[in-house]
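(Protein data)
===
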Amino acid sequence: MTTPPAGLPIAKGAGPIELIPRMANRHGLIAGATGTGKTVTLRVLAEQFSRIGVPVFLADVKGDLSGMARPGGDNPKVAERAKQLGVDLVPAACPVVFWDLLGAQGIPVRATVSEMGPLLLARLLNLNDTQAGVLNIVFKVADDSGLLLLDLKDLRAMVENVGTRSAELKVKYGNVSAASVGAIQRGLLTLDQQGAEHFFGEPALDLDDLRQTGDGGQGVVNILVADQLMKSPVLYSTFLLCLLAQLFERLPEVGDPDAPTLVFFFDEAHLLFADTPKALIDEVERVVRLIRSKGVGVYFVTQSPLDVPDSVLGQLGNRVQHALRAFTPKDQKAVRTAAETFRANPKLNTAQVITELAVGEALVSLLDEHGTPGVVERAFIYPPRTQLAPLAAADRDALVRKSALYGHYQQTVDRESAYERLTQRAAAAQPTPTPTPRGNEPDLTKVAVSIGTSVARAMGTQLGRQIVRGVMGSLFGGNRRR
């Protein structure tokens, strides 16, 4: 019989504070103002999970976590904190795989349009309820017609097809307005400008590739390179939610294992819940509530507990609260909320302490062996064992190329799907042209070439480019010039 892993040392207050691995899939929250130590706490937790063979997925939103692939110990502040806490710090690296939606600084990570589905795509495209309803019709028509939606050109072709057949489809599927079709098309254009064409397509990510262990039995730390991705925050948060939903749908039930099968860190979690429709919030709450039975622990990292809806916050049993500032009424409310989420400690004025915590210090409450929240304690987070400084670009690139996954995801696969099928149907529906008798009629071929040459010349001028963009813009319901 396998011995359950021992507690994971996370912090030190009056004594060591340890996270029980069997309770790690009950989820958690790491909160605190900017610069108070959230990222280091995330790193220490990820190191500890990796050490006992639990794979981790996290996003590197600031570009400073790549050093986890190297042993640390060379930072004087780390050595000073270890001495202060009486910790025998043994530097150690984690096995790391770098992923990148843009494919530039890691293994390309993709999903198909079908995998993301209409609910998440509606959020990504910033659609209202009516427009989201039309997007649902697009997906339904594709399903009923046996058309695969894999990449953005498939979705564009399907939206155009549904738009042109709106009168025919109305009786069976409902009204499809030209305005809603235009809104979807404009949203897809914006996605293109954000680089989403790199993300949608095949080969899609195999979830088993996130649940690997290294040669020494350590869990692989999967790092999503997200410093550039954060320029498109909705794409970032929607992708993470899509990935979480896929884990929920595809992983087998395991109950409450001795340790999680995967730990998923959702950094900048406020981006997920900002301006999010209630239907999607409800779905997030459902996934978080049920995914623990798949052995997956979800840890939200954000500035304030107020960033997370109560229905989700109530499910986050393991809490690490770094300092909060109380300069405004909103800040003061956040402090009170954070204090009220902890099991009270009669020796602490929790609300007051939250505003006094030093960098790297936190209020910690972890679940005990019965799943009961522990009394909140004031503690210092242990220093990390991996290198604090990020890797040089050349070193990271070398690690990417050494990965066993390198090459598998590099080349896109464009198999026959909705775009190709609809193009073939359109070509087959074209009538066979009747030859025109030669006479005094103008040579249409020469006319076409002449028109093409004129357009090409016009495109070479600023005015020509503006005219063409104006025409293209009108197709999408506007004529903005760029």
Remarks:
- DSSP finds 17 helices and twelve strands in the chain.
- Residues 23-87+95-101+221-387 form a domain with the Rossmann fold fold (CATH 3.40.50.300).
- Confidence is low (pLDDT under 50) at residues 441-482.
